[in-house]
Amino acid sequence: MTVNKMSPYAAIEIARQKKLNINFCARSLYNYIHHYNYPITREQLPMKNKRKKGSKTRSVRLARNNVKGESIEKRPIEINERDEVGHWEMDLVVGAKGGKKVLLVLTERKTRYEYIILLKDKSQKSVIWALNKIERQYGSKLFRETFKSITCDNGSEFLDFQSLEKSLFNKTRRTKLYYAHPFSSFERGSNENANHLIRRLLPKKTTFDTLTQNDINRLAEWMNRYPRRIFEGKSARLMARAEKLHFINFAA
């Protein structure tokens, strides 16, 4: 995987961080690209394809019998307003048709910090295994402090909320799950933005079956160091460090 597919804004921010002599702003560079297709063309811009109204949404296997899971409507205001660190969004990114491996993506809502785990398949068992893996590395107490809540969609892979919430060590609740409304990806906007970044390096129709967790760790590191406009050029890693978020590395 290459790691140079940054937006003009991000490229300028990195140049400034490296104290290179940059005498123009991101808006000027975008205008130049749009008018002259140089130094790259408009078609090469990362976000060139906006979703059109009425376009088909991503297919999700709904867990229609998940009547006991807590609705996003009951999520506290401090989570909705991103006032507190430790609240995450969770999603799966699938590879090419016919491939088995998928990516479990966890995005921290306040800092946009990412954890990405390569799963062997798209199943409830694999998702539970991933959260158990994270808890083993964090430990029960630190996991509970770091993952106060997780918001996900109504996909069948997230159906077993009790197993996802239950601690591997003492069977008490380690986190709180909230379920977004069906077909409402905007309720997990941080996840959606993370998925766009993932697709820059792993476009649709890319198989994940040949990838390793080390490959995915490099992808996550690229994303966490990516300059964010919402943070005035700071990265998710810098924001997470300021919030004293504890980092872990996943073994291959």
How would you characterize this protein structure?
This protein is of the alpha/beta class and 252 residues long. The protein has two domains: 37 residues, no CATH class; 171 residues, Ribonuclease H-like superfamily/Ribonuclease H (Nucleotidyltransferase, domain 5, 2-Layer Sandwich), CATH 3.30.420.10. Helices cover 33% and strands 12% of the residues. It has a five-stranded mixed β-sheet, with helices on both faces. The longest helix has 15 residues. About 6% of the residues have low confidence.
Notable traits:
252 residues, alpha/beta, Nucleotidyltransferase, domain 5, 2 domains, 5-stranded mixed sheet, 33% helix, 12% strand
Could you give the topology of this structure?
Layout: H1 8-17, H2 26-36, H3 77-80, E1 87-94, E2 102-108, E3 114-119, H4 124-138, H5 140-146, E4 149-152, H6 161-165, E5 176-179, H7 189-201, H8 213-224, H9 236-242
Parallel strand pairs: 1-4, 4-5
Antiparallel strand pairs: 1-2, 2-3
In short:
This protein is an alpha/beta fold and 252 residues long. It has helices at 8-17, 26-36, 77-80, 124-138, 140-146, 161-165, 189-201, 213-224, 236-242, and strands spanning 87-94, 102-108, 114-119, 149-152, 176-179. A 5-stranded mixed beta sheet has the order 3-2-1-4-5, sandwiched between helices.
